[in-house]
Amino acid sequence: MKKASLPVAHPLLDQPEGALDRYVALLEEDQALRHAEYDQPDPKRRRLKVSCNQCTTPWCCNQRVTVDLVEALAIYRWATVNQPVALGAAIARGKDLRSKPPLTDSEFFRRRVTCPFLIKKQCAIFPVRPHRCRTHYMGGNPMKCRDELAPTETYEMSPDGQLLAELETIAEDVKFQNFVTDTRPTELSEVLLLIDHLVRRGPFAAPTVVDWTVVE
Ligand code: SF4
Ligand code: SF4
User: Fold this and answer.
1) From ligand 2's centre to the CA of 204, what distance in Å?
2) Ligand with an atom nearest the CA of residue 119
3) 138 phi and psi angles, rounded to 5 deg
4) 134 within a domain of the structure (yes/no)
5) pLDDT at 202 over 80
6) Which of 80, 190, 205, 209 has its CB surrounded by the most CB atoms within 10 Å?
7) Is the pTM of this model over 0.85?
8) Which of 87, 73, 92, 82 is nearest to 117 (CA)?
9) Number of folded domains in the chain?
10) Which atom of ligand 1 is nearest to the CA of 59?
11) What is the C-alpha separation between 167 and 156, in angstroms, rounded?
12) Is the beta carbon of 123 within 6 A of some atom in ligand 2?
């Protein structure tokens, strides 16, 4: 992966030291375990069906993607260097969503609010994509994903609970060390908009809820 050299600096992107690098490394480890799960399945267990491998139109990228602050920070840091245009589009999308009445998950999906990082049917931030995007699988007909928000054949695959716990610990450490008590909202492009505002401000001196008040 290309090494990030950010044109902006903020403790959120550095503290605790190495946290974002560790987070991304764990995401990759988690992904490798998942690949092993369906590429080399344990013969004693039922083989998992993953139709996503043949899917050419990821309708699931029309769903609202909720992220933790740490995930959005890793994406922001990576995309600033590697996908600045797509990141700008995502931030613009965050502003657009913010200017309109909030949508339910179902409305979001029905209106085909496609993820701004989906470019030519490919994820432009694939190496750092959110955990939710990595763990969502379809075991049946991919076309059902076009018409239904949550087809019964979709499932989540998270092979290693210990690894998930470590990801969670890093997410909490990043918040704790930076006095962030909560993040609202949690939709990917809206959190990126918040981060974009935050990196232009100094560190927090007191416990803070990262919400729209930081944008005003
Ligand atoms: S979840 Fe459905 S739409 Fe998404 S990649 Fe898999 S098959 Fe395609
Ligand atoms: S981040 Fe990538 S995988 Fe996730 S919804 Fe957006 S385009 Fe799809």
Assistant:
1) 30
2) 2
3) -115, 130
4) yes
5) no
6) 190
7) yes
8) 87
9) 1
10) 3
11) 17
12) yes
